[in-house]
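In this section we walk through a basic example: taking a raw amino acid sequence and producing a predicted 3D structure, encoded as discrete structure tokens. The instruction is simple. Fold the sequence below.
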Amino acid sequence: MGLQANFNKAASTASQDVMIKTYRFPMLTLVVLLSLCSVSIAASQPASFEQWLKQYGAWDKLEKEYAAEQDKDTPEVILKRAEVYLNLNSPQKALELIEMTPAFADNATESQRLWYGGQAHRALGDLSKSVLWFSQAAEHISDSKDMQRRFESEPELETIWKDVWLKLYWAFGANHTMSRGAQKDALERINRIGLTVWGGQYWEKAGLTLGAGKTNAPTAKANTDEKGLPLQPFVSQQDREAIVKALALVSLEKFEQAHALAASISRPAVKFFWVSVIDFLATGQGPASLAPLAESNHLKALAFWQGNVLAPYSASRAGWLLGNPDSAPWTKFRNNILNMSVSDANKAIDNELGSMLISEQTAELLNNFKLALSLSNGDFIGSSTTWNKINKKHLPLALQLAGALLFKEDLNAILPDTASKAFAIYPVFTSLCGAAGEDRTSGDQADFWISAPKNSLKQLATLTYPMDKLLLLAHWQNAFSASPNRNLAKRAAYLFDDTSFGTSALLYLADQEVRAKRLQLGAFYLNKVKSDSLPIDQKTEWLDIKTRLELDSGRPAAALKTYGEMGALDTDIPVMTRLRMALLYQQNRNYEAAREQLLAMWKSRTGMTTALQAETLFWLGEGEQAMRNPDRALDYYLQLAWQYPQENIWALTAMYRASLIYEKRGKYETAKRLLGTVVKRADRKEQREAAQARIAAIDKKMGKETSKESTLVYPF
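The resulting token sequence is shown next.
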């Protein structure tokens, strides 16, 4: 009986039951029962079609209902449509609708409009704008309990509130433009809401920190201990001057001399750190081992390299160097000057500067060259004259940092006028100033060369110095290394987006989403990565995820192109990606390319499971057979069957394929023996039947059974 028939039968039975009960009960009782029944049905049924659609999550149909309403420009309908777009996971459409709508006069509707805007920005991945919209919405909520309910209903908002406050606070320290006042107002509003909604020590401390202000000039520290005795600075004046000279040499691309100066620093930890900085500026590579910093428990110095604060300069250090490193005329001129004595070099530069024919740009470059020359030779008096008359914002980064250290220059006089560019450089400069023994922060951050046991890191990062970027980076990185998870990766990707740790977090998120086949979200994370400036290991990982994303989204041609880029890097490629691409090459009948990938896998088979080793041999055999190389195909099939009998599915399939080659060659007995093993060991009925069928076919070909004692034939 069909479903419809079952339904009809049930309805008929129910109808008969009602008729029987009608005759059994008095009429009044029946009326009461029917009345109660209708009330029950009415109570469970939504009052409107819109509510009914919302109950079942039919948001696409609901949007059409709202769009068709006559009063679609009223605040109520606009807010309903915005809610629908958010529930349809179309935050961009919701935001367009909200932003095109003028502010509502009523506080309740305006608060809701702004709240939806915050949710849309959050869905688009812009947490800073999201929090700013939420905070604006709070300005229209007068009841503190209502505000608390609203904020607590948004998942994980307290965590996001802290992260956004921190990021804006760190940016505030680098901002000296006219927008600084507005930035401080936003920080105060975010902090005020944090105190109102969640309260606690963190927000109290955040408010005090913001009120104390920050400085970009060197912070004065007590130079005596509790007994009044002179304190020995962690980085001596002599070592700081060596750092200044090394940075000037870096700007002139004299990396070996700069390395030698850094290696002369007296304190081992400081020496290791600055040698690593000089080597990074020369090669783009960080230190291979951080043992010297780990052993001395210098937590912030260790975090600087673990998270790689210099990561944005991995691909190119041109911004640190004087002139254009790729300009042959400049390189020739620079080298000629550097081969002269100091006095002759200065005379040559002054002669060039005295010419009426040089451009303003050339004059600026020559003055910068003169500064680099003076600093690198330790002529600090002569260099101060040059320093005071040049445009410090146009210097290469290495000279800006050297001048800031030597002349105690406020970073605001050096950083770019554009707030976004200043914020990119600020954390690098403040960290390196601290590493040279000059603290450019107020009391909200620990000394750069703080030494403390690793088990105290959590307390230092979360309680003692909760605004310290490097300590928080170190704490989160340790936690992530011990137990990677999506929540921590999300926070790290947002808050430390200017470090290699933040990039690793983004790559982790992208990889997880692609593996889970949530391809749109995987693509979002992947596109957030600044792939052009990645070091080779992260570039490989980025290309690997991109290849898999393109394969899974049905774009094999794009995947092949991306995989070609990964191969050009000449680095280790994940084995499963190699396998997938090899199969794609075979599918496209590019058997030579497939063979190359499979042989590369076989070469590094020691790190592979036996199942994967067996599979590799099988596809090698398949490729050779497709290229009409049956002998080579047999080599792979038979090696697989012999070496990996435990990998049943691959071994038996290889034996079956080998039997077909032998059968075609007329080696019927060998083919039958191989097929006999398949029949005995096959787990699936279909495999056994296929092997039996081949044996039967071979028997027909063989005709009369011949003696199995010998295959030797005497023709005469």
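Looking at the output, two observations stand out. Residues 3-24 form the longest helix (22 residues). The mean pLDDT is 84. In the next section we compare this with other chains.
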